[in-house]
């Protein structure tokens, strides 16, 4: 989706959301108030709590084993160029109903994060990539499947060391919600094995 259209949808959805909050006699809090204004500290504290929950989730054997298998498969077939993975992404976007694409929603890792999401509805979307940025499992069907060409992924990958980051409030088309992204490295015995993008619903911050 074009950036301008995305921003327009985001702004419209944010206005509608704030209007709904007002009708429910909740305080009207703007995007600026949450991101850098009066409520910024509350937002950060909220996200810190969510990270603690995610750290427990990402220690799950099912998730770690899925990532280890995916990375082992990469090392066996040989790491390919970004152009190859981008082409693979394009093919997957054209064939979303195929077994391999649908498996991203139903493998052991996906089942685990969906169970977690059901218990913690504040998390609008969770997906996890391997070490080259290809999606390994996801709660929702994402708009694309190769993430290593995205700045957020590169920054969180951090040259193989990993780095926890919070993104800016945005409207996400695949989650269909106003969200705050958390970009989170996943480790096994202090070794980076994957990167997760997690979208926290703004609704949960109000609640």
What does this structure look like?
- The chain has 207 residues and is α+β, with helices and mostly antiparallel strands.
- It has a single domain (34-206), classed as PAS domain (Beta-Lactamase), CATH 3.30.450.
- The protein has helices at residues 3-23, 31-35, 40-57, 61-77, 82-94, 99-106, 108-119, 151-157, 202-206, and strands at residues 123-129, 135-138, 165-166, 170-172, 177-188, 191-201.
- Strand 5 (177-188) and strand 6 (191-201) form a beta hairpin.
- 27% of the residues are buried.
- Residues 1-27 have low confidence and may be disordered.
Topology record:
Layout: H1 3-23, H2 31-35, H3 40-57, H4 61-77, H5 82-94, H6 99-106, H7 108-119, E1 123-129, E2 135-138, H8 151-157, E3 165-166, E4 170-172, E5 177-188, E6 191-201, H9 202-206
Antiparallel strand pairs: 1-2, 1-6, 3-5, 4-5, 5-6
Features:
Beta-Lactamase, disordered N terminus, 9 helices, alpha+beta, six-stranded antiparallel sheet
Which stretches are low in confidence, meaning pLDDT under 50 for 5 or more residues running?
Answer: 1-27
Approximately how much helix is present in the residues? 40-55%
CATH class categorisation = Alpha Beta
| Count of the domains | 1
Give the overall shape, derived from the CA principal axes: globular
How many helices? The count is: 9
Global mean pLDDT: 84
């Amino acid at each position: 989706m074009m950036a301008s259209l995305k921003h327009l949808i985001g702004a419209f959805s944010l206005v509608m959301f704030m209007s709904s909050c007002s009708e429910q006699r909740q305080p009207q809090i703007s995007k600026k108030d949450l991101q850098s204004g009066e409520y910024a500290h509350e937002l950060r504290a909220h996200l810190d709590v969510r990270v603690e929950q995610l750290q427990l989730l990402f220690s799950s054997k099912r998730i770690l084993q899925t990532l280890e298998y995916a990375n082992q498969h990469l090392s066996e077939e040989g790491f390919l160029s970004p152009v190859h993975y981008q082409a693979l992404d394009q093919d997957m976007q054209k064939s979303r109903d195929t077994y391999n694409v649908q498996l991203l929603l139903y493998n052991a890792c996906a089942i685990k994060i969906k169970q977690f999401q059901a218990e913690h509805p504040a998390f609008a979307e969770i997906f996890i990539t391997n070490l080259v940025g290809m999606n390994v499992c996801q709660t929702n069907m994402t708009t694309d499947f190769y993430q290593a060409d995205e700045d957020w992924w590169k920054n969180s990958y951090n040259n193989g060391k990993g780095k926890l980051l919070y993104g800016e409030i945005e409207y996400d088309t695949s989650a269909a919600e106003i969200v705050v992204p958390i970009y989170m490295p996943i480790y096994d015995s202090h070794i980076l094995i994957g990167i997760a993008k997690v979208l926290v619903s703004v609704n949960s911050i109000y609640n």
